[in-house]
């Protein structure tokens, strides 16, 4: 995905970053519509994502750029980046290589209410040890 400098700056000007300079991002598998995860981007992460075509987020816990897959190999390649009507949420349509969740599941949305309890509805496809060597 090639983006001109003018288009990049137009997008950045339209994004309503929060008081910490972040905007929420939903990552969705481009061809199936599966919602994979939610994370945050800052200006630098948006720029890097659009420049390299590989999704980069801002890690609030590490206070650093988080290049999806840099430690696990589970990369998200950008297909399209969209801004919602209010300018306060991004949608990253991605081609996910492997699993998206750090727990080894395909996506991060594996807990659901079933009956009267919170239930795990999908099991890990890859162990955390295999993902991170821990």
UniProtKB/TrEMBL annotation:
One of its GO terms (molecular function) is zinc ion binding. Keywords: Amino-acid biosynthesis, Cytoplasm, Histidine biosynthesis, Hydrolase, Magnesium, Metal-binding, Zinc. It is found in: Cytoplasm. Its EC number is 3.5.4.19. Residues 37-110 form the Phosphoribosyl-AMP cyclohydrolase domain. Its main location: cytoplasm. InterPro entries: PRA-CH, PRib_AMP_CycHydrolase_dom, PRib_AMP_CycHydrolase_sf. It comes from the Bacteria. Mg(2+) binds at residues 84, 86, 88. Transmembrane segments: none annotated. The keyword Magnesium applies. It catalyses: 1-(5-phospho-beta-D-ribosyl)-ATP + H2O = 1-(5-phospho-beta-D-ribosyl)-5'-AMP + diphosphate + H(+); 1-(5-phospho-beta-D-ribosyl)-5'-AMP + H2O = 1-(5-phospho-beta-D-ribosyl)-5-[(5-phospho-beta-D-ribosylamino)methylideneamino]imidazole-4-carboxamide. Its cofactor is Zn(2+); Mg(2+). Binds 1 zinc ion per subunit. Binds 1 Mg(2+) ion per subunit. The keyword Cytoplasm applies. Catalyzes the hydrolysis of the adenine ring of phosphoribosyl-AMP. PANTHER family: HISTIDINE BIOSYNTHESIS BIFUNCTIONAL PROTEIN, HISTIDINE BIOSYNTHESIS BIFUNCTIONAL PROTEIN HIS7. Homodimer. This is Phosphoribosyl-AMP cyclohydrolase. It comes from Insolitispirillum peregrinum.
């Amino acid at each position: 995905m090639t983006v001109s400098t003018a288009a990049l700056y137009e997008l950045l000007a339209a994004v309503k970053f929060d008081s910490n300079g972040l905007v929420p991002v939903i990552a969705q598998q481009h061809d199936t519509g599966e919602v994979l995860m939610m994370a945050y981007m800052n200006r630098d992460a948006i720029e890097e994502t659009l420049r390299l075509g590989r999704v980069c987020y801002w890690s609030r816990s590490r206070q650093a750029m988080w290049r999806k897959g840099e430690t696990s190999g589970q990369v998200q390649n950008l297909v399209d980046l969209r801004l919602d009507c209010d300018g306060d949420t991004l949608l990253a349509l991605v081609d996910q290589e492997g699993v998206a969740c750090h727990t080894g599941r395909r996506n991060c949305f594996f807990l659901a209410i079933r009956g009267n309890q919170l239930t795990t509805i999908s099991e890990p496809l890859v162990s955390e040890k295999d993902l991170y060597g821990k």
